[in-house]
Amino acid sequence: MNHAPTENLALNLGYDREENLRQLTQVMNERPEAPYLAQLMASWAAGVGVLPDGMGLRESEFKDFTRFYFGTDAVEYKSVSGRVFDADRMPETEDLRILLNRHRKGEQEAEAWVAEVLISGMLGYDHLWEDMGYWSRKELSATIQEVFPALFEKNDQNMRWKKFIYKQLCIQEEFVYTCRAPSCAECVDYSECFAIEEINQVKD
Questions:
Q1: In 3-state terms, what secondary structure has residue 97?
Q2: For residue 80, which phi and psi values (nearest 5 degrees)?
Q3: What is the phi-psi region of residue 82: left when phi exceeds 0, alpha when psi lies from -120 to 50, beta otherwise?
Q4: Which of 18, 108, 26 is nearest to 65 (CA)?
Q5: Among the residues of the chain, which ranges form H helices?
Q6: How far apart are CA 92 and CA 25, in angstroms?
Q7: What is the pTM of this model?
Q8: pLDDT value at position 9?
């Protein structure tokens, strides 16, 4: 049974993300997003995905994050994959931070940490859910639904999350969205933007 961590628990995270997930789900707190964040940490600790040192958090934030969700601040900060956050690749980082924090549920400081982790995942080149270390698209959508519910509700056409979030940046900054198709349904790149294989299921 999941419980709210009350002590500095010992975890032995390694290269087996299934085993990492087993350990993390045993100690995670009762926040609804915790099972999905456990997937991220399980993958990150195994060197899977693009998340950098501390999953994109500062060291003090990472300790607070792991203590809050998993009852320990003894998780190694350095990424097994050797990735580091390269802010030069993302001049829009602050804009993403403003956008995500504007759509937070507003219940916990921890939501701001999740925003930082999500921004770090956007540095990758594959599907966001894969780059972040989720098992599938559904867990990414579930995280956004729990932590950024207003953003989740806006994506009512099941647009792929990275494309959708960047589109929201364009709208927020009053940029001209450059797609020239008369409607998304008629665009030749429809399958690149929308998760058509799950169009009637949970959002990508």
A1: helix
A2: -60, -35
A3: left
A4: 108
A5: 17-27, 34-45, 59-70, 93-102, 110-121, 128-132, 137-147, 149-154, 161-172, 190-193
A6: 34
A7: 0.82
A8: 64
